[in-house]
Amino acid sequence: MDASTDDAATYHITIDAPPAHVLAVLRDLAAYPDWQDDISAVRLLRRDGRGLPVRAQLTVTSMGMKSTLTLALEHDERTMRWTLLEGDLLSRNDAEYTVGARDGGGTELTLRQELSLRWQMPQSVTKHLIGRKVATTMDAVKRRAEETAPARRDEQRR
């Protein structure tokens, strides 16, 4: 049996919102339970001097199981990345979101995520689960960023 607990997925999506706004949506971890169905709670444990989260604890439900993740986060002008510090179902959850401006406006968002489960599972199953999870997350980011983009809010006020 070809089994693996380590897998990575990379996903790209175009978002009709400025890169700075997309990063702001990603960095607002406290709001994740409002728009990511699998995240029920977020505790911000530490922020940096700019007010950005650098340590957070998330309560996640995935595959019918509830899990708690403690993440260390890093930020620069185009990226937000995290590394798993503690997790009860995952032994690895490293992710990097990168934004890029698109010609004519909008954002190209790339997510690269590496996950390792604490148990063995066939590689085909883990690839499917990770791919589905990453796609669902990116679609949720796109919806949230476009719904809350400054231009969209201005249109809704009229």
Question: Can you give a write-up of this model?
Answer:
There is one protein chain. The protein has 158 residues and is an alpha+beta fold. The chain has a single domain, classed as START domain (Alpha-D-Glucose-1,6-Bisphosphate, Chain A, domain 4), CATH 3.30.530.20. The protein is 30% helix and 46% strand. The protein is built from four helices and seven strands, in the order E-H-H-E-E-E-E-E-E-H-H. It has helices at residues 19-27, 32-35, 123-148, 150-157, and strands at 6-15, 39-47, 53-62, 65-75, 79-87, 90-101, 107-117. Strands 1-7-6-5-4-3-2 form a seven-stranded antiparallel beta sheet. Strand 4 and strand 5 (79-87) form a beta hairpin. Residues 1-6 and 153-158 have low confidence and may be disordered.
Helix amount: 25-40%
Count of helical stretches: 4
- Could you give a short account of the major beta sheet? 7 strands, antiparallel
Query: How far apart are the first and last residues' alpha carbons, in Å?
Result: 60 Å
Instruction: Supply the CATH superfamily name.
Output: START domain
Q: Assess the beta-strand content as a share of residues.
A: over 45%
Structural class: alpha+beta
Kindly provide the name of the CATH class: Alpha Beta
Whole-number count of domains: 1
Please give the order of strands in the largest beta sheet. 1-7-6-5-4-3-2
